[in-house]
Amino acid sequence: MTLFEKIITREIPADIVFEDDQCLAFRDINPQAPIHVLLVPKRPIPRLGAAAPADHALLGHLLIKAGELAGMLGVGESGFRVVINHGPDGGETVPHLHLHILGGRPLAWPPG
Ligand code: AMP
Questions:
Q1: Ligand 1, pocket-test mutation among 16, 93, 97, 101, most atoms within 8 A of CB
Q2: Residue by residue, what is the 3-state secondary structure of 51-77?
Q3: The pTM is what?
């Protein structure tokens, strides 16, 4: 089981902000911005590049929810960033697809 599956099954505690039948959102334990929430699919996909055509609807659901969640978290107007890290150079540390939703401060571009 991945770390995030253990959060989904409540084996590991987390500050959960949203849940539906397909996904779970919780605050990142090491926030990089005032708002830093992770949105994960309950059906684990290791990383974006491992997603298959069968995941089409789930990926669309996650993106729609990321936008809705940003609004729920109060950064819909001020702005936010959605990040998916893939592989070593991308900075991926947990092999369970997750969208970082970051906001609450101006975010630099390009990223480090
Ligand atoms: P990534 O580096 O893109 O794979 O992102 C993994 C994220 O998971 C990091 O931002 C970590 O801070 C976060 N993280 C690791 N363990 C936990 C946890 N137990 N609860 C919440 N977030 C976590």
A1: 93
A2: CCHHHHHHHHHHHHHHHHHHHHCCCCC
A3: 0.98
Q: What is the pLDDT of residues 79-108, one digit of tens each?
A: 999 999 999 999 999 999 999 999 999 999
d(CA 101, CA 107): 12
Fold held by 3-103: HIT family, subunit A (3.30.428)
Return the domain boundaries, the chain: 3-103
- The residue with tokens 């779970």 is 24
Q: Is 100 a catalytic residue?
A: no
Ligand 1, atom 3: nearest CA belongs to which residue?
92
